[in-house]
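Summary for the steering committee. One of the milestones for this cycle was to obtain a three-dimensional model of the protein with S-adenosyl-L-homocysteine bound, which we needed before selecting residues for the alanine scan. The sequence and ligand used are listed below.
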Amino acid sequence: MSGNPYPLGLRLAGRRVVVVGGGAVATRRVPALLDAGAHVLLVAPELTPALRAHADAGRLHWAPRRFAPDDLDGAWLVQVAVDDPLAAASVSAAAAERRIFCVRADDRAAATAWTPAVTRHGPVTVAVLGGGDPRRAMAVRDAVRALLEVREGTLSAPGTPSGTRPGRVALVGAGPGDPELITVRGWRLLTEADVVVADRLVPGLLLDELRADVELVDASKIPYGPSRAQEEINRILVDRALAGKLVVRLKGGDPYVFGRGGEELLACAAAGVPVTVVPGVTSSIAAPAAAGIPVTHRGVAHEFTVVSGHVAPDSPASLVRWDALAGLRGTLVVLMGLKNLAAITATLLAHGRPAETPAAVVQEATTGSQRVLRSTLGAVAADVLTAGLRPPAVVVLGDVVDALGGAGPEGIPGGGPGQTGQSLTG
Ligand code: SAH
């Protein structure tokens, strides 16, 4: 058939769409149909686990059998997602008879409708047809997406010229260090920001890519050194947002893990400034992972506890029951713990955690400067001094340290437990 395709945006909310087939193609197509609000009837003798989950949750209706032409009664659209050409042709024929558009994954020439490559940006949907070459469509789509991501910050919704739209604050987790470990939403907000208030632990490369006109506020808090008052940060967030700016408060790891995100949220709320919170990949889990240590492992640890070591165990200001933690069998992850490590390990030992408990320290995890020290609870404090490890570092205690035998995340040995019980890689 010749002729150019005629693009349309189908409004499927509340309308029946039939999907024939329960394999990989259907698994990829169904979510967008559900997102469009379609009433999906899925006809297939068997489903992939992901489709099964949609059916079990009542998000679609599953007819657990082979296709029958009557299935198309009342349908607005049909998606053929079966391999068998004869079965697919019979769906096509039934659809043509009823004048229902039919998308066919197996045979685009036989289809009466094609699915484009899509990228969505808020209310805007961009759909690309590649003239018979799906890879070309995806390449064009990716190029458009990249363009829109860069420009989005300068585009404002119709009728709300920038400057008059209400300001807001986004508390965004930047992840542990590798700039690729920010979330997609966090990255998008960063590209839209008018003002970025960043911590010292935020990956520098993320800030490299900000637009030139973005106001960058460095809220560096150097450990054990002078720190800019939290009130000052709160004031900047509120001020800029009340002036109509989109303020991204970029914090290392996750904003709510020892990140004072809650205080900033309360300050904004008190001033009537709307806040979005975007979780981040926390170093408490990612730093061990980067050293080849899973915080839980079947048959090894059924719990992991994350605790801050910035207050010494014997200090009246301590909120941590170190004696109780010593009685746990599972994984203990200590953040901000280097300065007090000798006191922390002594307290755990004194309350009964065995000295041979495997220990690891991961400094500057997921960055090019990552260093990993493997030791034991009894020796780790001294080993850290010998090795000259510095913050930021995460201390991991428990049998999970040896669970993968010291293999790095890429399967490359990342410094095994070692004969002496200590080794350093970096
Ligand atoms: N909100 C952050 C933690 C802030 S507290 C998060 O969720 O990760 C700061 C502490 O986090 C540091 O002292 C250190 O213990 C840990 N930390 C943060 N980034 C780290 C990294 N890349 N490597 C090792 N530890 C890190």
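Key point for the committee: Residues 176-177, 201, 251-254, 257-259, 282-284, 287, 335-336, 362-366, 391-394 surround S-adenosyl-L-homocysteine (CB under 6 Å).
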